Amino acid sequence: MKYFLLFTAKLLLVAFLILGVLDVIYTQVYKQSSNRNKIGYVYNSKARDYDVVILGSSRANNHFVAPLFDEKGLKTFNYGMSGGHLFEASLLLKLMIERGYHMKNVILEADLNLSNEQQSESVASKFLPYIHDSKTIANHFLKQKNFWALYYIPFYRYVTFEPRIGFREMYSTVRNKPSNVLAHLGYYPLPSKKGNMKNNLTNLKPLHNKYYEEIKQICKANNIKLIAVMTPMCSNTKGLDYFQKVNKIYPEIHNYEDVVQGDQYFSSCGHLNDAGARLFTKRILKDFFKK
Predict the structure, then answer these.
(1) Three-class SS of residue 88?
(2) Which residues contact 171 (CB under 8 A, 6 or more apart)?
(3) Percent of the chain with pLDDT strictly greater than 70
(4) Considering its fold, how many domains does the chain have in total?
(5) Secondary structure string (H, E, C) spanning 133-202
(6) What is the mean pLDDT of residues 276-283?
């Protein structure tokens, strides 16, 4: 029994060491990459200057045509992340401040994402390679239920979120394989092909959202003008009074839910196609950046 316990202890020690080595290797790979996703693009960067930074979910990523801002002489990048929540938008903004970014304006898509304060695992996982090197990231995840395991068990985060930051993504990063998420200044155009053109927001309730509050505080503390907007939905949506409910909690959020009319401008009920996004972006430029 003594020899069995000793063998088991040695085996566990060897396994722990292997996991530790793998953790270091994966982490070092991600710390050298800035062309795979928007999180690495920010984390592995130095100070940048922007006239306009765009944050939010896919309803930011697909709706704000950053090159149209650029044509107006406004240095802009769309940092919207498909599938993301305000949890990730707030953390990305914190990282920009940590990196010394200077931003005159932040446009924040704040509409459907106000209805939850959860992390989006598909997006949040991409911050995890840097959790030991950034107090900002560690503190942001601190109250998440699996923080202890993510932070203290070596290689656990890479196994748990294997499709996002596991071997395949690490290998693509090693090969310096670029992705299309950074093209078009971060804007991702959608085709005209129709997806689901029905939506139901009846059971969706906006919250007094702590991550939206964080973003407001960060912008105020750093003298950044925050422009919070609700972006278009197709007319065939039930429960459109959701947007009025948002304004009851946050009257400062600009409601653009109905400014683009016609199914021909939508790729799905909640997402504009490229033609619709260009119409919407021109309206934003006219309303907020006319001078």
Answers:
(1) helix
(2) none
(3) 97
(4) 1
(5) CCHHHHHHHCCCCCHHHHHHCCCHHHHHCHHHHCHHHHHHHHCCCCCCCCHHHHCCCCCCCCCCCCEECC
(6) 98
Beta pairing, strands 102-109 & 225-230: parallel
Cα dist from 146 to 89, 90, 118, 198, whole Å: 20, 20, 13, 35
Cα separation, 176 vs 247, whole angstroms: 44
Domain that holds residue 127: 2-288
CB 65 within 8 A of CB 278: yes
Do residues 207 and 250 make contact, with C-beta atoms less than 8 angstroms apart? no
Beta bridge pairs of residue 272: 266
Residue 33, pLDDT score: 86
Enter the DSSP assignment of 244. Answer: H
User: pLDDT per residue over 6-57, tens digit each?
Assistant: 757 677 777 778 888 999 999 999 999 888 999 999 999 999 999 999 999 9
CB-count burial class (<10 Å; 0-12, 13-18, 19+) for 67 = middle
Distance CA 35, CA 33 (A): 6
- Contact 284/64 with Cβ under 8 angstroms? yes
Which run of H or of E encompasses 275? helix 274-288
What is the C-alpha separation between 186 and 81, in angstroms, rounded?
9
179, 35 contact by CB (below 8 A): yes
Q: Is 86 exposed, middle or buried (CB count within 10 Å of its CB: 0-12, 13-18, 19+)?
A: buried
- Cα-to-chain-centroid distance, residue 77: 13
